[in-house]
Write a structure and sequence with these properties.
There is one protein chain. With 484 residues, the chain is α/β, with parallel strands linked by helices. It is built from 19 helices and twelve strands. Helix 4 (88-96) links the parallel strand 4 (79-83) and strand 5. Helix 10 (280-299) packs across helix 11, helix 11 crosses helix 17 (426-440) and helix 17 (426-440) packs across helix 18. 34% of the residues are buried.
Length: 484
Amino acid sequence: MDLRKKILLVDDEPEVTKAIRRLLNKKGYEVFELNDPLKVEDYILYTDLDLVITDLKMPNRDGMEVLKLVRLSKPEIPVLILTGYSAVDTAIEATKLGAAEYLSKPVKAGELIKIVNKYVKKDEAIPKKLKKIIDTRLETGQQANDIDPDKTLLPEEIISNETIPEGFVEVAFDEIVPGELIPFSLFIQVYNKAEDRFYLRRLIKENQIYTTAIRNMLFRKNLGSIYIQEEDYRSYLKYYTALKSMPQFKEEQIRDKKKLVLYGKAIEAVSHILSEPIEESNIQDAVNLVDDTFRTMVKDPNAFTGMYKLFIKDASVFNHSANTCVLSISFGLYLGMESKIIRQISLGALFHDVGMNMVDKKILEKPGPLTSEEWNEIKSHPERGANLLKSSSIYPDRALRIVLEHHEASDGSGYPQGLKGDQISRASRLVSIIDKFDGLTTKKPYRAAFSAKDAVKRIYSDESSTAIKGLIRDFIRFLGGKRE
């Protein structure tokens, strides 16, 4: 087993990662080069990292997002930020968010080694007795190299629960609760189709905190079971017995399953509805989806609080529309609105950005500032969407106004009509708040994602209307699962 300290190096420029890897390899570190920052989750999940070094400015996912992901999932791993001179202010901000330190490019070799050594304390030679214990724990009926926590999932690999590895015990994934110190190591089993063999990947070392971020990553991979070593089973039983005595344990299990099933159905249905031409049949499908989702939520509204934490965050119209629709239903129930009004608002939320399908994709994905012509193209989407829907005999007027008005502002600075104050329907303002929240907490080509906390602060500070500020306060309480 390789006992060298492990460093993940994230930079979209291969020549940079290769140069730093060679330097750190000479100093006895094992370095994983990653030129695609979207794959950071795999290394967090499947590799026992001691340090992460990330560039600040990268396409698709920047260094601030990498930092937040590591801090949320495995906060014990220090993160070093690499930055160009022009981004020093952002790097300083990163240190406030939990980065261990930042280095300006071009990085001097001596300075880099000094800082890496500072945050990764190199072990002395492992004593023979301790090495024997380590080897014994790994040799529970398997070759030591079968328990390999250092590989990420390759294209030909899948998570598998088809067999139970010898020397291990299978436990239900949802019986491991986040936010707790886990007194045993957790493993998943991976099947390599090319080699036709199974491997084990360690997710969490014993006596580490199993974070909510790690759990949500696995949740979205539809993981059913995980494994512990047989010798840890007594510790697991003690842990699980203590959990079962907590009244909220079973309630949380049930709620999480409900959230995942409901959200999965919503994503699938919205993707189908919005990928087809807007016709009466598609609108009827949307009505059916909203009705089904409402009926599920109204049975137990409290079960769906905090659902936004499981949302898939990408800039696609499909996911954004599903997120806005589901959150509108949940928020409407929280406010105690009439069921008919909630359904109509949710229909408006589902189709609010349908006009975006008519905007040139190159404009939507442009990383830099838009020209005035491009911005006008973006601002045309509410009217385009409303024009697609206004001839429908089953699409309600309240929903149609939401599609047309969700970018209007209380002070008249919005678009497309420049409406003010009470000229904008309250339903449109409600969906506008949710639209902004989901948009801000999603990464865009031109900026990083906001945290939920920073997003609601921004929405509140941008609002000029006292009445709508009150609605935003309700939304904040709703997100936090609080009642006034």
